[in-house]
């Protein structure tokens, strides 16, 4: 019998790639998405339900009807700057609405949960690479909402036996190797798709914020992890929960970073296109380096990134950008 999975937020960037992966693995997938930031045409398999995880009546009906084995949650708001301007929006959706989802799961006796978390829970790095023992001190409402849910999930496991795996992404990047899926944020805020939009002519220029950091070329260094590799980690985490493993939290990254200049140079090399780069002042709160220590995911889940090199990540994202044009 196929494993039955509810994917909340499955029409968004990471969720849609996971829905596709689950379908390829033979799982029976139901996607719940309110389409505020997701795209209906990005859901390539399974059932689709337009709705919100705040709707307890809808959640109860779905869980009664399908009797899911596990739930995957990708339905958080994710823009750091917006979270500072509109904290109420983030606490309402990312915390209160997630609590509604967890209460519905508890009522339906669904005890396996995979949560899309973030490196933002760590705040400004005390050391790098960042492992799971690194102090958690988020510096914005977005990171705080994610940390709150991680703490709630630990309490739920102790009190109710609900087992959750929290996967803390560093910089999710790239696109499905087939070119059918990719990043479609509106507005877009991630460096690789922004730079590719400049290369394709959909954007006039790309901005480089800060060139005087304590890094080899003066620009910020980030750990980019391919979207397909993130999906591998989710699949392995699901298998661990289905096999009876307890809840856990893992940092997901390649373990090495690439600077803003390196990303821009790679985009120029891959696309062969000229574009304008504007050097601007640093943005408040941007640390010089954010790099993951993902050794726990490698050793305990058996996770090994298939696409660790920046050129491949950019190539796959460029294939999607060209398909959109």
What features would you describe in this structure?
The chain has two domains: 4-173 and 224-252, 3-Layer(aba) Sandwich (Rossmann fold), CATH 3.40.50; 191-223 and 255-324, UDP-galactose 4-epimerase, domain 1 (Alpha-Beta Complex), CATH 3.90.25. It has ten helices and 14 strands. The strands form four sheets. Strands 3-2-1-4-5-6-11 form a seven-stranded parallel beta sheet, sandwiched between helices. A three-stranded mixed beta sheet has the order 12-9-14. A two-stranded parallel sheet has the order 7-10. With 325 residues, the chain is an alpha/beta fold. The mean pLDDT is 96. It starts with a strand and ends with a helix. Helix 2 runs parallel beside helix 4, helix 4 packs parallel to helix 5 (141-160) and helix 8 (260-271) packs across helix 10.
């Amino acid at each position: 019998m196929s494993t039955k999975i509810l994917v909340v937020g499955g029409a968004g960037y990471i969720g849609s790639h996971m829905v596709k992966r689950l379908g390829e693995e033979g799982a029976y997938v139901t996607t719940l998405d309110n389409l505020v930031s997701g795209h209906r045409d990005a859901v390539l398999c399974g059932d689709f339900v337009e709705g919100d995880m705040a709707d307890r009546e809808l959640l109860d009906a779905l869980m009664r009807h399908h009797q899911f084995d596990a739930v995957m949650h990708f339905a958080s708001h994710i823009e750091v700057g917006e979270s500072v301007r509109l904290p109420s929006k983030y606490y309402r959706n990312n915390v209160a609405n997630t609590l509604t989802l967890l209460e519905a799961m508890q009522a339906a006796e669904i005890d396996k949960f995979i949560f899309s978390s973030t490196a933002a829970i760590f705040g400004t790095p005390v050391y790098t690479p960042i492992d799971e023992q690194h102090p958690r001190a988020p510096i914005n409402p977005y990171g705080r909402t994610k940390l709150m849910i991680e703490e709630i999930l630990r309490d739920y496991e102790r009190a109710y036996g609900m087992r959750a795996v929290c996967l803390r992404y560093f910089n999710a990047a790239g696109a499905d190797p087939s070119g059918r899926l990719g990043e479609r944020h509106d507005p877009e805020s991630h460096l690789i798709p922004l730079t590719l939009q400049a290369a394709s002519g959909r954007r006039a220029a790309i901005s480089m914020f800060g060139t005087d950091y304590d890094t080899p070329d003066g620009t910020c260094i980030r750990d980019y992890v391919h979207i397909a590799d993130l999906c591998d980690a989710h699949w392995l985490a699901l298998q661990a929960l289905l096999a009876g493993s307890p809840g856990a939290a893992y940092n997901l990254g390649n373990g090495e970073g690439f600077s803003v200049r390196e990303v821009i140079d790679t985009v120029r090399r891959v696309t062969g296109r000229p574009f304008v780069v504007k050097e601007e002042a640093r943005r408040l709160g941007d640390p010089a380096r954010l790099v993951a220590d993902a050794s726990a995911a490698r050793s305990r889940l058996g996770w090994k990134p298939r696409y660790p090199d920046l050129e491949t990540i950019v190539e796959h994202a460029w294939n999607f950008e060209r398909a959109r044009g």
